[in-house]
Design a protein that fits this description.
Urease, subunit C, domain 1, binds 3-[(4S)-2,5-dioxoimidazolidin-4-yl]propanoic acid, seven-stranded mixed sheet, binds fe (iii) ion, 20% strand, alpha/beta, TIM Barrel, 16 helices, 15 strands, eight-stranded parallel sheet
Length: 397
């Protein structure tokens, strides 16, 4: 395929979007073969039937690097409770919150989980997503954690999207282990991680380091097993309070630390040293009507790469729109449209430990998004509605 007359945001440089104004991209199989201005198309590609995108903006396919898109039920009733005055933490402590989704996910069949997740994934694909990370964590028992991860893998084979899974057994303490987080970690979480890894279901290991979930020492025990299994690490850190998650993530050279509203400048420095990505999740901040934004300036000062993701989940971020996440990142956190676009492409790639996508350059995967727009700032500027013209996945429309 030869895309012609494209406004290319290649993102190969972090200045000016790596713009090529009247550009062309040649795809060979599932890889990008050549990128450059129309006037320089090499002879070998000139015979190819062109796909004229008529000046439209072309970006790398979008990468949603943090989602909990596989789950049973929904939490609209809790949304209502919160608007009547209850807090997210109070609902969680009363057995609602993540645990109510755990009950619904345990009760759901694999087929039901797959079909409800696919309808949400389709909404993502309609907004240019070509790579999607999916976490477990609503099972909290062996059977259901494995079921969720199998559903995540099935999404990768049934939908035209590249799926990466994260094991999030340390997401909450299930009711049958109430008051016994350590026993849960030793007797359920760690053996389930090993079993899931044996089945080839795990690409990374995540945890929720928070007052309503697990402390840094408990998560560290799970991370030690991840290390033995050679699996990379991610962590939900400093979302609702600062209890040392970011420092823990940095000690384990995590791919990313995610949320980070309560992270400090020292935390940012630690992430810079460990080469971890800060994954910014404005959907949860917005939904929970949080007031403290993540320290974006400190990430900039210390040179921590920032990614942006939906955190798509039934409780704190019931959204599938990465475009809306970009808009929120800019409006709520003062990220620039350039940072927002980098956050859903190049830096999201890094947050998944990948290097073969997220930019438009020879050798990269041929995953592209063609937009009904002529400048990349439009993607962040409109409130969630920028139209996708088409998506190219593995070199095909
Ligand atoms: N942080 C989140 O944003 C999700 N999990 C987590 O650890 C929320 C999960 C939920 O409320 O269902
Ligand atoms: Fe999350």
């Amino acid at each position: 395929m030869l895309l012609t007359h494209a406004t290319l945001a290649t993102l190969v440089s972090d200045q000016d979007y790596g713009f090529i104004r009247d550009g062309a991209v040649a795809l060979k199989g599932d890889k990008i073969a050549w990128v450059g201005p129309m006037s320089e198309i090499p002879k070998t590609f000139r015979g190819t039937e062109p796909f004229d995108v008529q000046g439209r903006l072309v970006t790398p396919g979008f990468i949603d690097c943090h989602s909990h898109i596989v789950y049973g039920g929904n939490r609209a009733a809790e949304f209502e409770q919160r608007l009547n005055g209850a807090s997210y933490q109070e609902i969680a402590q009363a057995g609602g919150g993540i645990i109510s989704t755990v009950k619904a996910t345990r009760a759901a069949s694999e087929e039901d989980l797959l079909s409800t997740a696919i309808s949400r994934v389709e909404a993502m694909l309609a907004q240019g997503v070509t790579t999607l990370e999916i976490k477990s964590g609503y099972g909290l028992d062996r059977e259901t954690e494995l079921k969720m991860l199998r559903v995540a893998r099935a999404i990768g084979s049934k939908c035209r999207v590249s799926v990466y899974t994260s094991f999030l057994g340390a997401h909450a303490i299930p009711p049958e282990y109430e008051g016994q987080p350590d026993t849960y970690i030793d007797d359920v979480c760690i053996p389930t991680l090993r079993a899931a890894h044996d089945e080839g279901l795990v690409d990374a290991v995540d945890g929720f380091c928070e007052g309503i979930a697990f402390d840094a020492e408990q998560i560290a025990r799970v991370f030690d097993v991840a290390r033995q299994l050679n699996l990379p690490i991610k962590l939900h850190a400093e979302q609702l309070s600062n209890i040392g998650g970011t420092q823990l993530a940095a000690r384990y050279k995590a791919l990313s630390a995610d949320h980070l509203e309560y992270a400090t400048s020292d935390d940012a420095a630690a992430l810079a040293r460990s080469g971890s990505v800060a994954v910014i999740l404005p959907g949860a901040f917005y939904t929970l009507r949080e007031e403290r934004p993540p320290p974006i300036d400190a990430f900039r000062t210390h040179g921590v790469p920032m990614a942006l993701a939906t955190d798509s989940n039934p409780g704190s971020s019931p959204m599938t729109s990465l475009l809306l996440a970009m808009n929120m990142g800019c409006t709520l956190f003062r990220m620039t449209p350039m940072e927002a676009l980098m956050g859903v492409t190049r830096n999201a790639t890094r947050a998944l430990g990948l290097s073969d996508r997220g930019t438009i350059q020879p050798g990269a995967r041929a995953d592209l998004a063609v937009w009904q727009a002529d400048h990349p700032a439009e993607l962040s500027y409109r409130i969630g509605d920028t139209a996708l013209h088409c998506r190219i996945f593995e070199g095909a429309l």
